[in-house]
Specification:
There is one protein chain. This protein is an alpha/beta fold. It contains 16 helices and eleven strands. A seven-stranded parallel β-sheet has the order 4-3-2-1-5-6-7, with helices on both faces. Strand 6, helix 6 and strand 7 (145-148) form a beta-alpha-beta unit. The radius of gyration is 20 Å and the shape is globular. 47% of the residues are buried. The mean pLDDT is 97. Bound molecules: nicotinamide-adenine-dinucleotide (NAD) and magnesium ion. Magnesium ion (MG) is lined by residues 150-152, 226.
Length: 393
């Protein structure tokens, strides 16, 4: 078997670390050829020592100098900046790109991998939320293979017929059911939401993740972003995507068929499963994940999401239905509001208010190209920052 070269964008994050864990279990199959990191340079240096990539990419010239210092005599070429990310995502010798940078910063390098026709393992859902239609056109044009790593979308991918061609009706599919844990505040009295802290918001009951997605899970904006992600990945109209709260996070999502069948993918909540699935597809490889113990789990529960508790979910539906620049505006406003909340500058409940006000203020516009997406993103960041400073403390 020939070894595949992999670029891991966002190697120092939660998904990146899990990806390198799976890669390390299969040295005969995969080689980490390029790693990127933004702030945790000590971790990136340790990853370079363990995986001996040819390239490491960081944000700035100063960070590059500091990383070179830490690497000593290790033969790793250290690059920096947005162009370098795009470069390692499209190297001819790279077969697979794990897109695991968080937020809008991941869009351009992920698109570079798509344009180069790579096998793209997509964790960076914000890229699809911002530019779904353009992104999917690029996938079609380049022949890139797009494999979802987000656990729900990976579960749906596994539950759809092999070779699914983007036509739900022809595949006999009547609904995609996206499961959601409901996060740490699913049962907290509504009044108490006023006072929740970043620490509480980041303490997810089932998953260990980066801070931004942890807050998104608490507000359920994460599920809203995932509805938009599913719309583009599977060419699914909004009314064919339903969110189901399932607190145990054992069923990762389901596909309902016209004959009454419902297919689902189950497993322990461990991202190494979808990562290994996407790395090896259509084969299967060990991921280091414990076998599912149904007797220990005992029961599975389901309920409908409460939009009064989770207004961010409703905002995501609003942006998806508006189309054009609205999803990019939603995403950017959310990034700004979540950062302000994590910094202690904005109350938890105001996150949804900042996003709603930003959507209200920015005129609806079509997005013809990437440039118009980036304009919407920048405008929404400015607007959300102003609104957030006004409501903040
Ligand atoms: P994280 O915060 O743990 O890691 C983010 C990575 O992106 C880090 O390597 C960081 O250095 C890099 N990064 C941050 N800002 C950057 C910038 N401006 N430029 C370049 N690189 C930058 O996040 P995570 O939890 O690993 O999530 C990564 C992506 O995967 C997100 O889009 C998230 O929604 C998605 N995702 C994560 C999980 C999970 O379990 N963690 C599950 C599903 C989807
Ligand atoms: Mg998910």
């Amino acid at each position: 078997m020939s070894q595949r070269n992999v670029t891991v964008l966002g190697a120092t994050g939660s998904i990146g670390v899990n990806t390198l864990d799976v890669i390390a279990r299969h040295p005969e199959r995969y080689r980490a050829l390029a790693l990127s990191g933004h702030s945790r340079l000590d971790l990136l240096a340790a990853q370079c020592a363990a995986h001996k990539p040819r390239y490491a990419v960081v944000g700035t010239a100063e960070a590059a100098a500091s990383l070179r210092d830490k690497l000593g005599s290790l033969a790793v070429e250290v690059l920096h900046g947005a162009d370098a990310l795009a470069q390692v995502a499209s190297l001819p010798e790279v077969d697979t790109v794990m897109a695991a940078i968080v937020g809008a910063a991941g869009l351009q390098p992920t698109l570079a991998a798509v344009r180069a026709g790579k096998r793209v393992l997509l964790a960076n859902k914000e890229a699809l939320v911002m530019a779904g239609e353009l992104f999917m056109h690029e996938v079609e044009a380049s022949g890139a293979v797009l494999l979802p790593v987000d656990s729900e979308h990976n579960a749906i991918y596994q539950s759809l017929p092999a070779g699914y061609d983007g036509n739900l009706a022809r595949a006999g599919v009547t609904k995609l059911l996206l499961t959601a844990s409901g996060g740490p505040f699913r049962t907290l009295p509504l009044e108490a939401l006023e006072f929740v802290t970043p620490e509480q918001a980041c303490a997810h009951p089932n998953w260990v993740m980066g801070k931004k997605i942890s807050v998104d899970s608490a507000t359920m904006m994460n599920k809203g972003l995932e509805v938009i992600e599913a719309r583009w990945l599977f060419n699914a109209p909004t009314d064919k995507i339903e969110v189901v709260i399932h607190p145990q996070s054992v069923i990762h999502s389901l596909v309902q068929y016209v004959d009454g069948s419902v297919l689902a993918q189950l497993g322990n909540p461990d991202m190494r499963t979808p990562i290994a699935h996407a790395l090896a597809y259509p084969e299967r490889i060990a991921a280091g994940v414990a076998p599912l113990d149904l007797f220990a789990i005992g029961r599975l529960d389901f309920c409908a999401p409460d939009l009064a508790r989770f207004p961010c979910l409703a905002l995501a539906y609003r942006a998806l239905n508006s189309g054009g620049n609205a999803p990019a505006v939603l995403n950017a406003a959310n990034e700004i509001a979540v950062a302000a909340f994590l910094d202690g500058r904005l109350a938890y409940r105001r996150i949804a208010d900042v996003i709603a006000a930003t959507l209200d203020k920015i005129p609806q516009a079509p997005v013809a190209d990437l440039q118009s997406v980036m304009v919407a993103d920048a405008l929404a960041r400015d607007t959300a920052a102003t609104v957030s400073a006004h409501w903040g403390h």
